[in-house]
Amino acid sequence: MATTQPNPEDLTARARIRDAALLHFGEHGFERATIREIARTAGVSSGLVRHHFGSKQALREACDDYMAKTVRELNDQAREGHKDGTFGDINHIAAARAALIPYQRYLARELADGSAAALFDQMVEMTEAWLATFEETGDATFTADRRARATVLTAMALAVPVLHEHVSRGLGVDTMTPEGDHRLAMALLDIYSHALVSPEDAATARAALDKVRDQTPAERDAALRAFKERQP
After folding, report:
1. Which pLDDT belongs to residue 198?
2. Which of 122, 187, 107 is nearest to 154 (CA)?
3. Which residues form the HTH tetR-type domain (predicted)?
4. Residue closest to 162 by CA, chosen among 89, 106, 80, 99
5. Residue 6: what are its φ and ψ, rounded to 5°?
6. What is the pTM of this model?
7. Pair 176, 105: CB distance under 8 Å
8. Separation of alpha carbons 177 and 104, rounded Å
9. Measured in whole angstroms, how far is the alpha carbon of residue 199 from the centre of its chain?
10. What pLDDT score was predicted for residue 116?
11. Residue 60, SS3 per DSSP
12. Rg of the chain (C-alpha set)
């Protein structure tokens, strides 16, 4: 199973503080989490937290940096496992999903708070690289550019941890557990491996969207009024 490379820092008090912060920021949010409780969970003094990080904001930035590094390493391992065009005997993407489960709550909080911009942008770049790989041997044509599609795909994927409570309720199992993540992954595979819209229907939808885009404000208002009049 893929794992991140051991880091000597992970054996230090600094790493314990970071891990405790990931837990508390994810559970309580940045504003409600306290240095005192983070220190208690890490088994250190509040003074040592400030010695290593200086402030709660700096600690948050260290957590974001660690998340970015972790995601990057897992992605690199997945790409290495896929270099021959197949996923081989070990599915590195599945292993990466399992490795990220402990960080889902933190990631959801950061995204909901409007933070983690650098991490989001990094994940978009990774998704764009994957799309480029998958499209090398395909003959499909696209209306939207690859960057746009990568951005939307990343946002769709990251919406799952943000909407964790609702998705878990719908699936009947906590998506932040191995069992829940497996159920979620199986659903995603079914969705990604089966086209939901035929090329003909997509072309019709594109034409309709272009028509709406080109409408004047008066035409849009008239269309909205007509729609409301049709409602029961």
Report:
1. 87
2. 122
3. 11-71
4. 106
5. -60, 140
6. 0.77
7. yes
8. 10
9. 28
10. 83
11. helix
12. 22
Structure tokens that stand for 17 in this block? 């503080």
CA distance 132 to 204: 26
Q: Letter for the amino acid at 202?
A: A
pLDDT digits (tens, 9 = 90+) for 95-119: 777 778 888 899 888 888 878 888 8
Q: What is the pLDDT of residues 147-169, one digit of tens each?
A: 999 999 999 988 998 999 999 99
- The single residue listed with the structure tokens 């209306």 is 143
